[in-house]
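Why do we care about 3D structure at all? Because function follows from shape, and shape follows, mostly, from sequence. That is the central idea of this module. The next example makes it concrete: a single protein chain, its amino acid sequence, and then its structure expressed as tokens.
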Amino acid sequence: AKEINRSGIQNIGTERRGQQLIKDGCHYTRHATTIIPMAYPMGDFDNKQGVCTDLVIRSLRGIGIDLQVLLYEDILVNPTRYRISKANTNIDHRRTRNLKRYFDAHALSLSLKTPKEKPLSWRAGDIVIMDTGVQNGTIYDHIGIVSRNKDHKGTPLVINLWAIGSQLNEMELLNGDYPKIVGHYRLFHPFYYQASPVSIQVN
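And the structure:
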């Protein structure tokens, strides 16, 4: 169990914003894989383009959480956590491995078992990190948001931008075969961290 304020959990707003982004339309492009200069805070580029992390960043901004700021500040305070010599507001928050390190420290870490194995551990709006098996230097190479919608077996779909050329959509990614689940988190708003905590079971 972990002490948090139950009212601070942000799942409903995160998932709703993800669904809206699907309606708005966004494609995974090669340009989006590069380091793109952007403003700080709330920096972004063409919202019709993105990579998998941009979905999460934009969804959370819709409920008042700016990962660009949170990552930058956490890297400055805890550089060894990220193994980064100099923080970069253009790219650090757009790398899945960095988001995992942030979530490990600041979000609720949940079961890595599939929804079929442990259905009560999964909720729409949870954030899931996956290993696609691509040899790119990290097993933390894909991220998405658990959807309220389910497949024909009752397994939640995942809102995500899968690969170059794909469109933001929902996919069957939690069946346990492929990809491998390597991170599963539930976020609560930073302003709720110290407010009226209650004990809940998260694993």
